[in-house]
Design goal:
Layout lengths: L1 E5 L2 E5 L6 H5 L7 E5 L2 E6 L2 E8 L2 E4 L4 H11 L6 H9 L3 H9 L10 H10 L5 H15 L8 H4 L4 H9 L2 H14 L12 H8 L7 H11 L10 H11 L7 H12 L3 H13 L7
Antiparallel strand pairs: 1-2, 2-6, 3-4, 4-5, 5-6
Length: 284
């Protein structure tokens, strides 16, 4: 991989195992808009950025080398060898082989942990358009220049005001999360270096945060690539593809993922999730 400037735009060339559509549309983030074929606008890291992919090249519009190095190179996990990851998790596994062949351009983002936490609290029992709408409204009303609102900007917002953003019962969870983070009772900065189980329990101190939300935050923003978030859909996917359609308990699936994919389980989850959600819920 290398990059060069094309006027005001930066072009990353020689990308492998990278597809901007698969990365953004696989359920790990919510602040993006499709502008065309492999062309997207995203909101992340305090910035709105337009990207367009052509083959193995990715253009970042109005982006300089310093911004790329300090923000987007890590955000898109560009220095990790996903070819080696796919080979390892799919070895002697025809189901996973089919999944990585179908969406081999998925990469796990390194998101800002606070925004990721609040976003996945909002995602509970919700659909993608509504999640995106609520986050957009919260950013417009309380954020600066359309950016996701900071803790300070949400400090004095009441549960009633959050409810007015149409987030329903999740308003109390967002309020609780904001104030536990402000008080220091939960410190996201400490979770990346904690053992996974301890970090999960810290996140679960927040009202409304269970294993699924905690695991999404650990996987998508805190570098715990070993976690395997399980919701109703993932439970169905694994049960059908690996257990001949016999529904398994959450604990059984968690143990299965840990034993089968180890510290790469989070990558396996994303390939399976995208593969099955796209209409491939049949054994490979």
């Amino acid at each position: 991989m290398n990059y060069y400037m094309d006027g005001k735009d930066l072009v990353v060339d020689g990308l492998r195992d990278f597809n901007i559509e698969e990365i953004l549309e696989c359920g790990q983030c919510f602040r993006f808009f499709k502008l065309g074929d492999l062309k997207y606008s995203i909101r992340a890291l305090g910035r709105e950025l337009t990207l367009e992919q052509t083959g193995n090249s990715l253009k970042l519009f109005n982006c300089g080398a310093e911004e790329f190095e300090t923000k987007w190179r890590h955000y898109f996990d560009m220095d990790r060898d996903y070819g080696a990851i796919k080979e390892k998790i799919s070895r002697n596994d025809s189901i996973m082989s089919a999944a990585v062949d179908y969406a081999g351009g998925i990469r796990l983002l390194n998101q800002e942990s606070y925004e990721c936490l609040l976003s996945f609290i909002i995602s509970q029992n919700n659909n993608i358009p509504r999640i995106k709408g609520i986050i957009a409204s919260m950013s417009e009303v309380y954020g600066s220049e359309g950016n996701f609102p900071t803790l300070k900007e949400l400090e004095n917002v009441t549960p009633e005001e959050l409810f007015a953003l149409k987030m329903g019962f999740r308003n109390k969870y967002i309020y609780d999360a904001v104030h536990r983070l402000l008080s220091g009772e939960v410190s996201l900065d400490k979770l990346e270096d904690m053992p996974c189980n301890e970090a999960r329990e810290e996140l679960k101190k927040i009202k409304g945060v269970g294993n699924k939300v905690a695991d999404c935050v650990l996987l998508f923003s805190l570098g715990h690539r070993e976690v395997f978030p399980i919701d109703v859909w993932v439970r169905r996917v694994v049960s059908e593809l690996y257990f001949d359609g016999q529904e398994q308990s959450l604990n059984t699936i968690s143990d299965f993922a840990r034993d089968k994919w180890g510290d790469l389980a989070g990558y396996a989850q994303q390939y399976l999730f995208y593969y099955a959600r796209s209409g491939n819920l049949t054994k490979g």
